[in-house]
Amino acid sequence: MNNPIPPQGNTQPRRSGTGPAIAVALVTSLIAGAGAGYLAGNAAGDANASYVSDALDAKPASNSEPAPEGSVEEVAATVLPAVVSITVEGPRGSAEGSGSIISGDGYVLTNHHVIAEGESGAKIAVTLNDGTTHPATYVASDVNTDVGVLQIEGVQNLPVIRFGDSDELQVGQEVVAVGSPLGFSATVTSGIVSALNRPVRAAQGGGESSLMDGIQTDAAINPGNSGGPLVDMNGNLVGMNSVIASMSSSPQGGAGSIGLGFAIPSNFAQRVAKQLIETGEARQPMLGVQVSIVDPARGATVAGVEPGSPADKAGLKPGDVITRLNDRPIDSADALIAATRSRDFGETVTLQVQSEGSEDSRSVDVTLSSE
């Protein structure tokens, strides 16, 4: 007798007696896992709370290491004691600015536009880096160069800033600006020399203006920085911060640093300050020409020549266009004036000159006026 063939197709799986046990075990493990996670979370929370408590209770780490040599920190420590804040109160208004102490008995180098009211008897006060405030006396200032000098009263043995050689500055060189922008005294900013020999004319009020052969810098300079020092990374004064370019169309407000600040070169400021202290007025080397400020020529067009002047003796004529002074290009009347003022009294300079109606140029040697 043949054995029957097992049924095919929808056969039912064999039930295992272990199935419910596995399900129970799985559920148990999930519950156990959740419990373990809760306990672990509590443990981590306790640990984190402990760590936070430790951090908040810990003593601050020391930050008393000496400033690295040549750092902005070291420069600031060197320069700040010799920088002052200046306030001027007069019947026609008030002014604020900064200045550099240039002698132990209180002479301070600053801008004309900061202390100009002092000439009319306005009250001047100077605040030193130690926080003490002293009255100051107006010495002299020059509107054409925007250089001024005052003297702090009743002081002696003050820290003095060192003059550097602005002729040695290089584009890209690091510099630090110090002053009191918007009344915030002892403010330090840093940047680089962005450009050199920038002719910058600034209105001084009353229809007058100053002209500088400016050092351009991107170190932040704001109103109140005027008259303060621009120093190199050795702490030497290489410029006096004076003017900023602004995007603001309002003359009264909204002006602030956009990375275009200008400083009077220290060599020039030092020479003018010495004249102001010794004689009460400033004089500059001269060619003896009047130059047109409206002529569209690419250069400085001679509008007139003073009889007997250095230019007259060198044969310059009205209509001549000066395009270079020594190795410096001249592209405007202001550029010629600024470049001439930057030279020494009695120095012989070489001008590149194009005569009126001619495309050819010639070299002309001119000995500038003596002091």
From TrEMBL:
Keyword terms: Hydrolase, Membrane, Protease, Transmembrane, Transmembrane helix
Region Disordered, annotated ranges: 351-371
Molecular function as annotated in GO: serine-type endopeptidase activity
PROSITE patterns given in the database record: PDZ (PS50106)
One BP annotation, GO: proteolysis
Membrane-crossing residue ranges in chain numbering: 21-40
SUPFAM superfamilies linked: PDZ domain-like, Trypsin-like serine proteases
Domain annotation PDZ: ranges: 276-357
The protein's name: Trypsin-like peptidase domain-containing protein
